[in-house]
Design brief:
Distance between the termini: 23 Å
Pfam families: MFS_1
Subcellular location: Membrane
Low-confidence stretches: 1-28, 254-259
Order of helices and strands: HHHHHHHHHHHHHHHHHHHHHH
CATH class: Mainly Alpha
CATH topology: Growth Hormone, Chain: A
GO molecular function: transmembrane transporter activity
Structural class: mainly alpha
InterPro entries: MFS (IPR011701), MFS_dom (IPR020846), MFS_trans_sf (IPR036259)
Number of helices: 22
CATH superfamily: MFS general substrate transporter like domains
Oligomer: single chain
Keywords: Membrane, Transmembrane, Transmembrane helix, Transport
């Protein structure tokens, strides 16, 4: 299926096969529609569950030190001052360094092997964190954890955008993103169970068991996924050989162009950098996720178990909000307001947190900023992928660049939460509020830019007599 017919926001109409040197799928035939529905149904039963489960474990393994902090983690490793913050931040340095090379590699290898293999590696590295005994060892392991985790998110998103059309992608991205939200929600419940049942078992602290248990579960899931995850639509390998018919693969195929040309197109497009700033600001705004257990502990709600359980509810509500926002975004074919409105609720949550000492009000505010940040984030990826989609190679490189730049927010946001500001973390809340505002402003700017481009596309369509394929606003 050609990008000009499926996803190419900047294409006008349908070009001939001779011009594009590729097959153009023309919607409207009843048999084709039935074939497309069958294809999407198969993807929803194979690709989506596998990628979602891997993403859930990706965030469990990445963020389990947030729960470990409530155990004897800092004391056992002798962490002082902002050393925990550095350990949180250093992962994103390795993450940034590996993302773009990985996405360029992905288009040349089999994803059904590459992505699960990376997942097995991060499972082992995460579990190995249980064996560290000092700060330097922790920093080394966390850095390499970022390196081996880097291929997953941009690779998974590129896989989805290679199989799903623009109109289908927002909801699927939100479903994928719910793995992050649910991982954060259930990580507290898992930690509570492990700390209660395995603390001191075989002479190991509860936080070490937490890392081992979650790493082992992640490795098992990665091993199974290698046999289920399909490769690219044009590939006659992996599970796609028996999951999809030849007609379904032809329907889904998307010709991959030169990678360096795609990288050049992505770098030269200023919209790539606007989306990068938008998502970087969004990531900076939810810098709270590594410190949310500590924030909730500051509410003095009860025991450590009660604190961990209370971290789950805001993320569960955030999952529901994320699905609702994505469904509405797809249904109404709109992106900008579906990003900015949830962020306005997040801003309100940060303001309430700063303005009051009332514990119920601050706990309620956490629902606002968690739901607002997570509700908007997945839509940014979808919008960027559809807008920067002139070729598959450009899409791969552009989404990798956007994701790399967004990680800067994950690198610096841990330093918002200085130990001396606990438990309210007022400066951190103000900074996250400010970055939410920046994200809203860039969103409205991009909406205005694309509206202007649509007007130009409509004018060109009137002159040529060919129907315009407009940007989603």
């Amino acid at each position: 299926m050609a990008p000009s017919a499926r996803d190419g926001d900047s294409f006008i109409g349908e070009k001939s096969k001779a011009e594009n040197k590729e097959t153009v799928y023309v919607a409207g035939d009843e048999d084709q529609r039935r074939l497309e529905k069958r294809l999407v149904r198969k993807l929803d039963m194979t690709l989506m569950p596998v990628v979602w489960t891997l993403y859930l474990f990706n965030y469990l393994d990445r963020n389990n030190i947030a729960q470990a902090k409530l155990n004897s983690f800092e004391d056992d490793l002798g962490l002082k001052g902002n050393q925990f913050n550095v350990a949180v931040s250093i992962l994103n340095v390795g993450y940034v360094l590996m993302q773009l090379p990985s996405n360029m590699i992905l288009t040349k290898v089999r994803p059904s092997i590459y992505i699960p293999a990376c997942a097995m590696l991060w499972s082992c590295v995460s579990a190995a964190t249980a064996g560290v005994h000092n700060y330097p060892g922790l920093i080394a392991v966390r850095f390499f954890l970022g390196v081996v985790e880097a291929p997953f998110w941009p690779g998974a998103f590129y896989m989805l955008s290679s199989w799903y059309t623009r109109k289908e992608l927002a909801l699927r991205t939100a479903v994928l993103y719910s793995g992050l939200v649910l991982a954060t929600a259930f990580s507290g419940l898992v930690a509570a169970g492990v700390f209660a049942g395995l603390e001191g078992a075989r002479g190991l602290a509860g936080w070490r068991w937490l890392l081992i248990v979650e790493g082992a579960g992640s490795f098992l899931v990665a091993l199974v996924s290698m046999f289920i995850l399909p490769d690219f639509p044009e590939s006659n390998s992996g599970s796609g050989k028996w999951i999809f018919t030849e007609d379904e693969r032809k329907l889904a195929v998307d010709r991959i162009m030169s990678l360096m040309q795609g990288l050049k197109l992505a770098v030269k497009d200023y919209r790539t950098w606007v989306f990068s700033l938008m998502l970087c600001s969004n990531h900076s705004a939810y810098g709270f996720y590594n410190f949310f257990p500590s924030i909730v502990r500051g509410f003095n709600l009860g025991s450590r178990t009660t604190t961990l359980v209370c971290t789950a509810s805001p993320y569960l509500i955030g999952t529901i909000i994320s699905f609702g926002v994505a469904f509405s975004s797809d249904r109404n074919k709109e992106r900008g307001y579906h990003i900015s409105v949830p962020l306005c609720f997040a801003i309100a949550g940060f303001i309430i947190t700063v303005a009051t000492l009332n514990v119920p009000a601050r706990y309620f505010a956490s629902f606002l900023y968690i739901g607002g940040c997570f509700g908007s984030n997945a839509i940014v990826y979808t919008w960027a992928s559809a807008t920067l989609n002139q070729t598959p190679a450009k899409r791969a490189c552009a989404t990798a660049i956007v994701n790399i730049m967004s990680q800067m927010g994950n690198i610096w946001s841990p330093y918002f939460f200085r130990p001396e500001d606990a438990p309210r973390y007022v400066p951190a809340m103000l900074l996250m509020m400010g970055f939410s505002v920046v994200s809203v402003v860039t969103c409205m700017f991009m909406k205005a830019v694309l509206r202007k481009e649509n007007m130009a596309l409509l004018k060109a369509a009137q002159d040529s007599g060919i129907k315009a394929n407009l940007h989603t606003l």
